[in-house]
């Protein structure tokens, strides 16, 4: 792996920084992606469109699908800068480009690639992910949503929950059981579901930040064209694992953590706190942890560039990155003291309330996309070759 960037890549990073300095709305609150309200959502979507106009959403995709045909390293640089600058995200630069598009690119038919990839590149269609169910989270193979073939369609019935942006997405990548008699891992399939399909109901869920930060999707005989089956029927479980591996590559999260520490160090400096040796050590320790998380995510980009699907490496990156995010937010609460509890929009907060929002958002990051325990299982089994427990 090459740890350096070429002069062209460094120039590209500077171009992105210049763009962000000019284009992030001055009143952008920095709220966590899945919690943004309607006004913030409109701001974030407008920002998505500016990124799309530059072709930055899908830099590493082939030109025929709306990409720029550039390398995964440029894609990584872009996402790193988005995360570091708390850039607005209306979904345009996360789910679609990061894991739905790559799944379609890898397993989808030519027709699906032509239909679904260009609108993701243009930031026009937002995607959500309908994998988890009330009795199938870590053990996704147990999912019970049924998909029954009926002529040229599949008829889907069941319940998905904890779907981020379920109410705003045009499309959902959804997993369902197509063969109830096969062993549980071998009877699942993956579909592309339009969210306005009759029989699809989206309901808000009660979660920590507020009612409606996550969404339940009820499927009641929702009909999906057979042409929207992704890959092979009954191979869905294995495809879902690839989707998760793409999803766990979040350089933007690692970079956001580095920014939190940089901001805390600057704040400590202005408040005369840097004389406190214990705090200095904590900040230094977290700066190192954030840097390690960044490097682990660089490794994933390097693998993607080499045409590989990251595997246990993505689990290592996720485990370290999400832990660092939680620890950085907790340190922030300590540094800001009582001010850390002021919410976004409170003018008395030294950071506009970003940290309190981040701290609450961080509670779930070691659960979303596969819990830390599951990442450790993946590392043990696929990485170290240990037997299943
Ligand atoms: C904020 C948020 C957003 C989410 N967004 C989405 C989304 O957009 N789309 C989607 O499909 N899902 C989403 N999820 C669901 C998420 O993927 C699941 O919550 C997660 O996989 C854990 O599943 P579970 O909640 O059913 O917990 P369980 O699987 O019931 O786990 C409970 C506990 O048992 C542990 N455990 C379970 N099995 C093992 C094992 N084999 N070894 C060791 N420990 C184990 C877990 O680590 C956990 O601590 C989201 C979840 C949250 C909280």
Describe this structure in words.
The chain is built from eleven helices and eight strands. The chain is an alpha+beta fold and 389 residues long. It folds into three domains: 7-93, Orthogonal Bundle (Butyryl-Coa Dehydrogenase, subunit A, domain 1); 128-235, Butyryl-CoA Dehydrogenase, subunit A, domain 2 (Beta Barrel), CATH 2.40.110.10; 248-383, Up-down Bundle (Butyryl-CoA Dehydrogenase, subunit A, domain 3). The strands form two sheets. It has a four-stranded mixed β-sheet with strand order 1-4-5-8. The protein has a four-stranded antiparallel β-sheet with strand order 2-3-7-6, with no helix packed on it. Strand 6 and strand 7 form a beta hairpin. Helix 3 (72-84) runs antiparallel to helix 8, helix 4 runs antiparallel to helix 6 and helix 7 packs parallel to helix 9 (312-336). The longest helix is centred in the C-terminal third of the chain and has 29 residues, at 277-305.
Concise synopsis of the structure shown:
The chain is of the alpha+beta class and 389 residues long.
């Amino acid at each position: 792996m090459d740890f350096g960037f070429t002069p062209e890549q460094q120039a590209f990073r500077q171009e992105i920084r210049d763009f962000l300095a000019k284009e992030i709305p001055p009143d952008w609150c920095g709220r966590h992606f899945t919690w943004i309200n309607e006004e913030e959502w409109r701001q974030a979507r407008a920002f998505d469109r500016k990124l799309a106009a530059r072709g930055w959403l899908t830099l590493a995709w082939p030109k025929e699908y709306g990409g720029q045909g550039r390398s995964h390293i440029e894609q990584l640089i872009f996402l790193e800068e988005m995360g570091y600058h708390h850039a607005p995200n209306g979904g345009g630069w996360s789910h679609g480009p990061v894991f739905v598009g790559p799944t379609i690119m890898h397993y989808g038919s030519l027709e699906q690639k032509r239909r679904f990839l260009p609108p993701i590149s243009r930031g026009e269609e937002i995607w959500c992910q309908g994998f988890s169910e009330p009795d199938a989270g870590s053990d996704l193979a147990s999912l019970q949503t049924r998909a029954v073939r009926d002529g040229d369609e599949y008829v889907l019935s069941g319940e998905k929950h904890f779907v981020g942006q379920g109410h705003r997405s045009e499309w959902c990548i959804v997993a369902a059981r197509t063969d109830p008699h096969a062993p549980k891992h071998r009877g699942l399939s993956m579909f592309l579901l339009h969210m306005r399909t009759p029989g699809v109901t989206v309901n808000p869920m009660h979660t920590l930040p507020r009612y409606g930060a996550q969404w339940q999707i009820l499927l009641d005989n929702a009909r999906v064209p057979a042409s929207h089956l992704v890959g092979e029927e009954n191979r869905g479980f294995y495809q879902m694992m690839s989707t998760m591996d793409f999803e766990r590559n979040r350089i933007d999260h690692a970079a956001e953590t580095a920014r939190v520490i940089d901001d805390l160090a600057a704040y400590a400096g202005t408040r005369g706190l840097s004389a406190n040796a214990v705090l200095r050590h904590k900040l230094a320790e977290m700066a190192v942890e954030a840097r390690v998380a960044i490097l682990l995510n660089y490794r994933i980009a390097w693998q993607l560039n080499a045409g590989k699907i990251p595997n246990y490496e993505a689990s290592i990156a996720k485990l370290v990155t999400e832990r660092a995010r939680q620890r950085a937010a907790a340190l922030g609460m300590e540094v800001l003291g009582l001010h850390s509890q002021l919410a976004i929009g409170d003018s008395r907060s030294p950071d506009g309330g970003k940290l309190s929002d981040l701290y609450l958002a961080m509670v779930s990051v070691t659960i979303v996309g596969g819990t830390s325990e599951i990442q450790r299982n993946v590392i043990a089994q696929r990485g170290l070759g240990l037997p299943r427990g």
